[in-house]
């Protein structure tokens, strides 16, 4: 459906959209048109917040929510089930605050509560990626009573078995699209799903999903697709709008009006990028009596300003605490809380001169910005960024975990061109530790290089920001800068002129530079030569926290997946406890980092061997032997295997059993352990004193003293 919207005021715009309801006014029309929301007394809120079913406490237990998440879900459930007379609920979700997990918890519980009244839920967002992200979270929680409506080409392969393909065309054309997708993906898991979907399409079973569309509890669509013919005359009790602060008001209103919902749950972060729309032409401004395009104001912001109920998710689980401090101070008034510690975001790079790469690094440059049309580029910055990327790849950081952010398209192109022609080892393996995950590439050209706008909603272990043109540009507003500074989980590397940033007086740039200067190894001066700096970087075998299919703690963003629960059953049957975990951890780390033969034999002969072969088959070669000399095998053992086992122990016995301090006290004589001739024990004790999580001492020296007795350790 294409509708011409030629409005010069917000009221005109809203009335234009509401006219699409074809004589059936939306139940939320008063709220949409700006009527003040009804007042909710504190006593009324207390009733549902303390309810035995939808209250904060039971929701925290059932869905592993933190307090803010549970309060947001409780309020939304109260509105959805008429336990509250508030028709609109707003959830302000800053970066890494578990928005998707919160939505999934609400949808799962709401679907259960609405089933008796045949109430249904529509999940809508501006982008296909956002819709599929929520649906994948539902799948991970074991919820499958949904249908995804959309074009086959734009739906994530994981969601295809639950989709109704609405693109114009018959089965053969859809089959061709699926076959094209099959050729493009390298993921073993996604290839299997696509192959099965092709078979389903050829058998005609896809048509059965059209019948399910009328019965399922949940439908997922983009805002535009919510007006599709297949959804015509269908009513939904609740609409959930994800990323509501990123879309224009007409986009937000399409699913609200079409569904005739009685409850709206809008989720977003108005402190990050709003929709990009053109300003009203100057020649029309006097006639329109406006100074800017009214579409720039989002439905989320307007409802928030009108006083509708809003809960802010204050705990972030993405950024290293040193990285979250700047945006928290500069954009969120200091209200955010870190849900993870430094031990959860350990460094990926160890410095040969001692210490590790700082979470915040500012690499000072003196190059000049050059105009290219309306855009800008800086060749010196691009060259240095390219060098940093290649160094990270050479030190075992996969391309998929690195991102480069530019504020100008010309600079992004300049960096991309340098990476496309960057030298690399063509014989380097494409590793895939887990069979059902994407292959990890180490090619420079596979590193994502984009403008800030393209990075919204994404995260990477390492983000490199090329400063070209940004500090003194009005284009780099607070929202755009907020997005740029909140993508990195472990390392944020800013490449650009420190003097220009300081001169800009932009608080976020000044604060970032200040923190880099005050952090060991955080500031690299102008006089330092690129290769001389990068030659001091070496791989750090750290524990991975990227696996999003398991539960780290009650405050984690992700609930346990069926795969994790299956692995858990196996480990319980093996009687795997804290002591066995500690023994196996020590054996793996000594085998990986210290070439300790007895420890390697312990790993090879462990009762865990069949489990590891099933879950991480690439640890073993064709003969069933562990290839200890290969970098990908070392990564798999010390990162993936140990990471999974640690999470099992924390899940069963508490997060304290994931720390070195607890394990050493429980199973070692600290003084004797510190005298370990390989140096492994000393490294563990040193890091335990800082309460560092298990995995860090695996990055100790990779050499041992010549007189170390390999047979003295019988772990």
What does this structure look like?
- Residues 295-498 form the DNA2/NAM7 helicase-like C-terminal domain.
- This is AAA+ ATPase domain-containing protein.
- The chain is α/β, with parallel strands linked by helices.
- It contains 29 helices and 20 strands.
- The protein has an eight-stranded parallel beta sheet with strand order 4-3-5-2-6-7-1-8, with helices on both faces. The protein has a six-stranded parallel beta sheet with strand order 16-15-17-18-12-19, sandwiched between helices.
- Helix 16 links the parallel strand 15 and strand 16.
- Helix 14 runs antiparallel to helix 18 (478-485).
- The radius of gyration is 27 Å and the shape is globular.
- The termini are far apart.
Any idea what the CATH superfamily of the largest domain is called?
A: P-loop containing nucleotide triphosphate hydrolases
Strand % is: 5-15%
pLDDT below 50 for ≥5 consecutive residues: which ranges?
Answer: 1-10, 166-170, 279-292, 425-438, 542-559, 691-696, 698-715
Number of helices: 29
By CATH, the architecture of the largest domain is named 3-Layer(aba) Sandwich
How many structural domains can be distinguished in the coordinates? 4
CATH fold label of the largest domain: Rossmann fold
Shape call = globular
Measured distance between first and last alpha carbons: 67 Å
Strand line-up in the sheet with most strands:
4-3-5-2-6-7-1-8
Mean pLDDT: 82
């Amino acid at each position: 459906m294409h509708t011409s919207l030629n409005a010069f005021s917000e009221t005109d715009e809203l009335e234009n959209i509401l006219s699409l309801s074809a004589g059936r006014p939306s139940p939320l029309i008063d709220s949409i048109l700006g009527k003040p929301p009804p007042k909710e007394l504190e006593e009324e809120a207390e009733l549902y917040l303390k309810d035995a079913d939808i209250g904060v406490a039971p929701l925290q237990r059932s869905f592993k929510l933190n307090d803010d998440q549970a309060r947001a879900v409780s309020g939304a459930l109260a509105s959805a089930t008429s336990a509250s007379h508030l028709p609109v609920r707003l959830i302000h979700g800053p970066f890494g605050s578990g928005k998707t997990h919160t939505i999934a918890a609400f949808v799962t519980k709401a679907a259960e509560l609405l089933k008796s009244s045949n109430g249904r839920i529509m999940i809508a967002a501006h982008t296909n990626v956002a819709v599929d992200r929520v649906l994948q979270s539902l799948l991970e929680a074991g919820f499958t009573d949904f249908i995804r409506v959309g074009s086959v080409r734009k739906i994530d392969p994981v969601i295809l078995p639950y989709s109704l393909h609405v693109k114009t065309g018959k089965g053969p054309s859809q089959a061709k699209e699926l076959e094209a997708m099959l050729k493009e993906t390298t993921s073993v898991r996604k290839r299997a799903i696509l192959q099965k979907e092709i078979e389903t399409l050829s058998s005609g079973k896809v048509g059965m999903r059209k019948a399910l569309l009328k019965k399922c509890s949940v439908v997922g669509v983009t805002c535009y697709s919510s007006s599709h013919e297949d959804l015509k005359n269908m009513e939904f009790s609740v609409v959930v709008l994800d990323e509501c602060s990123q879309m224009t008001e007409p986009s937000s209103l399409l699913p609200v009006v079409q569904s005739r919902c009685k409850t709206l749950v809008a989720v977003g972060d108005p402190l990050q990028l709003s929709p990009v729309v053109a300003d009203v032409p100057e020649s029309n401004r006097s006639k329109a009596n406006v100074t800017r395009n009214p579409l720039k104001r989002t439905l989320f912001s307007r409802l928030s300003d009108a006083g509708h109920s809003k809960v802010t998710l204050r705990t972030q689980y993405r950024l290293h605490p040193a990285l979250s401090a700047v945006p928290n101070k500069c954009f969120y008034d200091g209200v955010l809380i870190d849900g993870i510690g430094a031990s959860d975001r350990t460094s990926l790079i160890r410095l040969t001169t001692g210490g590790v790469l700082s979470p915040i690094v500012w690499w000072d440059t003196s190059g000049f910005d050059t105009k290219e049309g309306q855009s800008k580029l800086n060749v010196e910055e691009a060259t240095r960024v390219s060098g940093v990327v290649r160094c990270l790849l050479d030190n075992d950081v996969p391309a998929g975990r690195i991102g480069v952010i530019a504020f100008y398209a010309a600079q992004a192109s300049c960096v991309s061109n340098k990476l496309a022609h960057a030298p690399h080892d063509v014989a380097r393996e494409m590793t895939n530790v887990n069979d059902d995950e994407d292959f990890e590439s180490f090619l420079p050209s596979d590193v994502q290089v984009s403008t800030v706008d393209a990075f919204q909603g994404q995260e990477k272990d390492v983000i490199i920001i090329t400063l070209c043109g940004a500090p003194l540009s009005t284009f780099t507003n607070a929202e755009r800068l907020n997005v740029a500074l909140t993508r990195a989980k472990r390392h944020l590397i800013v490449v650009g002129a420190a003097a220009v940033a300081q001169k800009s007086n932009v608080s976020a740039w000044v604060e970032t530079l200040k923190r880099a200067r005050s952090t060991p190894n955080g500031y690299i001066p102008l006089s330092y030569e690129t290769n001389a700096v990068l030659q001091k970087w070496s791989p750090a075998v750290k524990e991975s926290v990227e696996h999003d299919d398991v539960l780290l703690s009650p405050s984690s963003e992700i609930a346990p997946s069926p795969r994790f629960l299956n692995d858990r059953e196996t480990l319980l049957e093996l009687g795997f406890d804290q002591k066995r975990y500690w023994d196996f951890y020590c054996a793996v780390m000594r085998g990986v980092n210290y070439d300790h033969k007895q420890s390697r034999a312990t790993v090879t002969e462990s009762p865990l061997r069949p489990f590891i072969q099933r879950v991480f088959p690439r640890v073993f070669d064709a003969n069933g032997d562990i290839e200890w000399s290969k970098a990908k095998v070392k990564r798999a053992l010390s990162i993936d295997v140990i990471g999974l086992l640690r999470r099992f122990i924390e899940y069963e016995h508490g997060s304290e059993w994931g720390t070195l301090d607890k394990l050493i006290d429980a199973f070692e004589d600290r003084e004797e352990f510190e005298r370990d001739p390989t140096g492994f024990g000393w490294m563990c004790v040193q890091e335990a004193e800082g309460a560092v999580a298990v995995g860090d001492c695996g990055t100790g020296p990779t050499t041992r003293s010549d007189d170390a007795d390999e047979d003295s350790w019988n772990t």
